[in-house]
Amino acid sequence: MNKKTIALVAHDHKKPELLAWVKKHIEAMKQCNLVATGTTGGLIADNTGLEVERYKSGPLGGDQQIGALIAEGKLDALFFFWDPLNPAPHDPDVKALLRLCSVWNIPVACTSATADLVITSPLFFSPDHIPFKPDY
Question: pTM score > 0.90 for this model?
Answer without folding.
Answer: yes
